[in-house]
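User: Teach me something about this protein's shape.
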Amino acid sequence: MSATKKRKIDDEGRVFNSELCAKYFVVPHNQGVVCLICQSTIAVIKEYNVKRNYSRKHSSQFDKIVGHARVDKIEHFKNPLKNNKVFLPLTRRTQNC
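Assistant: First, the predicted structure itself:
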């Protein structure tokens, strides 16, 4: 019998796609992604996971914001992060905001 190695997410070498920021209000942080709206950490950088967080929690509120207003809103959420790097959570939060 041959021993097969279990596939690990860390070995896939996923990188942050900057389009996710504009679509789903997320930014890269450490090894994962952080939602700018609720500050929850999404550990695996997959569009499905990021989209699921956005659609379940924030889409009803932020889907109507488009164009330049959306970019302004993203910058508004990013400003506290620029001023204070400790603002981001260091541990993974639960599903509740």
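Now, about its shape. The beta strands are 26-29, 32-35, 41-42. Residues 15-87 form one domain. If you'd like, I can walk through any region in more detail.
User: That's plenty for now, thanks!
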